[in-house]
Amino acid sequence: MEKENRHVSLYSAIAIVVANIIGVGVFTSLGFQVLDIKDPTALMMLWLIGGVVALCGALVYGEIGTVFPRSGGEYNYLSNLYSPFVGFLSGWISSTVAFAAPVAVAAMAFGAYLGKVINVDPKILAISLIFLITAIHATSLKAGFGFQNVFSTLKVLLILAFIGFGLAYREHQDITLNFTDATWDQMKGKAFAIGLVYVGYAYSGWNASAYLAGEIKNVKRNLPLSSFIGTALVILLYLLLTYVFIYTVPIQDLADAQAKDFSKPIEVGYFSAEHIFGHGGANIMAIIISLLLVSTCSAMILAGPRVMKAMGDDIKLLKFLSFSSAKGTPYMAIIVQSIISAILIFTASFDQILVYVGFTLQLSTFFTVLGIFIIRFRKLNEGLSSYKTFLYPITPIIFLAVNAWVIYFVASGKPTESMYGVATLGIGAVVYFINKMRNKA
Question: Which tens digit of pLDDT belongs to each residue from 266-321?
């Protein structure tokens, strides 16, 4: 029975990782970053450091995932490493915001880009996209994974084409990537730490294959491989994309455009395409970028509900989330997550969602990566032919140190969004203890 359920190939797992990572963040968050960071080298280092941290996390998750090879991601890992209560809180984050909010953000960006070309309300476009993808994934596993593979491959090819045209742009900016005193000053400041939240959000999804671990073929080999290959590929694409953005558009122009309205991001990809291709070409690029975001929404609507289903299997109060079709599609969890995403589209601003989700995700992944030391101390991986974390303990220490630094600066620099994250955990704790009392009754 276990083998019958393992239908996700290595290629599909990599596609899910790439599609989960590459979303709205890289095409929009640069506008917020350049408000305080003007040095090109500092901006590139922002994306490089964020990528290295994500890769360190992926390497550690590869070992944790092979020790606990069940679907559910952090919910599964933290329940085994710490306690069911800690695991529930992580699963609560994943179920309520960690996937639903990024789906909302990606759908909002989809509506914003496509809305530049066709005269339709961006929110209507966003909601329509969510409902369409929900219908595909809630009805057929085969159609869902096929849809995901096609759009993920298309996404990478389109990005490579855009990078090629950008690097060939003749009227480019004079960009010199040298470390200067200004570079170091900007890298040591609070703005750089908060910028890492945006970058960390843009890289979120490096652990996507962990959520489907119970469905991946040859999981002890393919789980770590998919995380590593997918994350490494995205680091390269992100660095090239960021370089193309600041290579084709003056940094100050991006900052001035973002300063006009802090509530929503500027479409950096559209700005860059307008310089490269002219206004007509920019409209074509807006359509292309909107297509890229289809893959992002699809990947998160595919992965996120696996956490909800795992919680529904374990917790009576949430049992309705475990309802699946005869072929194993967790349709109820998919529908619930999409409803939350739709609500967020009408109730929150883009910037608030980015920081709020980034903060809560970092708390969850921080304690998961910390768990690698518990695994080694308890010798839980002994006797298993599982992958061992490359360059242990350096990789987890890098991940933990950078994330601790970012969490501290976000808590002090964005207290409102941080409190939203704490409040989300508080609500989760209430739900957990209500369920516990009901079980005792």
Answer: 778 778 888 888 877 777 777 777 888 888 888 888 877 887 887 888 777 778 87
Q: What global pTM score does this model have?
A: 0.78
Domain ranges of the chain: 2-440
Contact 90, 83 (CB under 8 A): no
How far is residue 92's CA from residue 204's CA, in Å, rounded to a whole number? 17
Q: Which residue has the higher pLDDT, 297 or 382?
A: 297
Tokens read off for 307:
């956490």
Residues in the chain: 441
Are 254 and 267 contacting, i.e. CB atoms less than 8 angstroms apart? no
**C-alpha–C-alpha distance, residues 168 and 216, integer Å:** 40
Q: Please tell me whether the peptide bond between 393 and the residue prior to it is cis, using omega within 30 degrees of 0.
A: yes
State how far the Cα of 312 lies from the Cα of 86, in Å rounded to an integer: 16
Cβ atoms of 331 and 51 within 8 Å: the answer is no
| Amino acid identity for residue 391 in this structure | L
- The third-level CATH classification (topology) of the domain covering 2-440 is Amino acid/polyamine transporter I (1.20.1740)
Task: Tell the residue number behind the tokens 């490269």, with chain if given.
Answer: 276
Give pLDDT tens digits for 176-234: 788 888 888 888 777 788 788 778 778 877 888 877 777 788 877 888 888 889 999 99
Distance CA 270, CA 264 (A): 15
Q: Residue 8 forms beta bridges with which residues?
A: 216
